[in-house]
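Holo model, uridine-5'-diphosphate-xylopyranose. Inputs:
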Amino acid sequence: MTKICCIGAGYVGGPTMAMIAHKCPKVEVHVVDINQARIDAWNSDVLPVYEPGLYEIVAACRGKNLKFSTAIDQAIREADIIFISVNTPTKTFGAGAGRAANLEYIERCARRIAESAHGHKIVVEKSTLPVRTAEAVKRILSASANGATFDVLSNPEFLAEGTAISDLLDPDRVLIGGENPAAIERLVDVYAHWVDRKKILTTNLWSSELSKLTANAFLAQRVSSINAISALCEVTEANVDEVAAAIGTDSRIGPKFLKASVGFGGSCFQKDILNLVYLCEHYGLHEVAEYWEQVVKMNDYQKARFTRNMVKTMFNTVSGKRLAIWGFAFKKDTNDTRESAAIYVCRDLLRENAILNIYDPKVAHEQIRNDLRDLMANEAGELNQLDRRLIDNNVHVVESTQAAASGAHAIAILTEWDEFKTADFERIYSQMQKPAFIFDGRNILDHQALKQIGFEVHAIGRRV
Ligand code: UDX
Ligand code: UDX
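Output:
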């Protein structure tokens, strides 16, 4: 019986391992993490990660072939295949700060594996990593205390949050990079339980590592490209959704990732592009670095532009005005807020002295305050008095769209949650200040119907 261990019970490690356990009843899967509270949550009825369909799978496998614990060394000793799925945030200090990936957690994992392992193990990089990280992992492993031997594979995860379960069930491809064909085959066999072998691509280690960064850079580039065009649409009376539909029918372009928005977020896009930029600079490819950096700059511009437009439209001042913020997650169907455009928009509105009523169906109240604190704090993690006062006094996290909009001058849609489309806008309008503005940062509402009710509607890349 194959035994798998996964270090890191996060948004990637948790769902991926649950799917392996679900599809491979004869494989024993042990997910470990240094964070006891996170492990306790994985063992409870309220999982730490919200994903449609995830709970059902975890509940069906937990106690059978799926285990969550903090017994890291034991899990390493028992496993044949060890996945590393810890986070690799952007470095905030020292060389490469703000760009390079912080690999300290990866290194720590590799050292722990080297210390605890006996015999032969396959170590799989699941975390997204800069090219040639496997080199470092291999060197650390080769210093094993117990003479253990290792094969290192790269197996990046392409799931998107909010659709993790369907992405895992039916992936476009599974990518496995490595050197030893026997080790690669062992991992192919695991995925082949449910993925067509034709969709399991095998490459060398470095191609696999670089493919993940490149895929995210291309996806983010599409969003930044359409967002750039949205700014042009706003001044030319073109409609960005019509432009996207028109170009998307060209089979060479394709229809996906062309939705103009308030800006992309999530734990991967920005981090992976900055990483790519750092790598290019490291190798002296300055023009290549600059090219990709522009994708992130365009995204910053889009987020800042949204707030500027709100303020300008509302007679150049939002000071003391109550504003309803609908949605705080970086996209719908997830409770994840990492790099969410909402955090940046809310910060900028707070610094205009606005009062924010924030509602998100899945994000925890404390998370919203923590995200704002983290963004507004200085490098030492301290808030100045003014920002502290703004977060304490001007941020109200509420329980419904209705509560957020009551008494407000405007509603800003920052996440495309389905429930926002079916809100009772007649009633909401009657409870708002007039003129009542809607800023649809996701272009999801029926703008003509809202206008008929009386709202003044502003959208991304189109005149309403
Ligand atoms: C992470 C990376 O950010 C991403 O680049 C990669 O593709 C997959 O892994 P995610 O699962 O979303 O993504 O991260 P996160 O939800 O933060 O989970 C990481 C987990 O690793 C955390 O629960 C953390 O406690 C754990 N961890 C971290 C360890 O168990 N040991 C460590 O040394 C560091
Ligand atoms: C992304 C990749 O899609 C996935 O393959 C990889 O494994 C991790 O990074 P994720 O960040 O979970 O996944 O979500 P994604 O659906 O890619 O959306 C990223 C951001 O782009 C979101 O903020 C989303 O709202 C935004 N977006 C996406 C747009 O603004 N417009 C679009 O057309 C698509």
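The CA atoms of residues 83 and 124 lie 5 Å apart. Residues 7-13, 33-35, 38, 85-88, 105, 108-109, 126-128, 157, 267 surround uridine-5'-diphosphate-xylopyranose (ligand 1) (CB under 6 Å).
Archived with the compound record.
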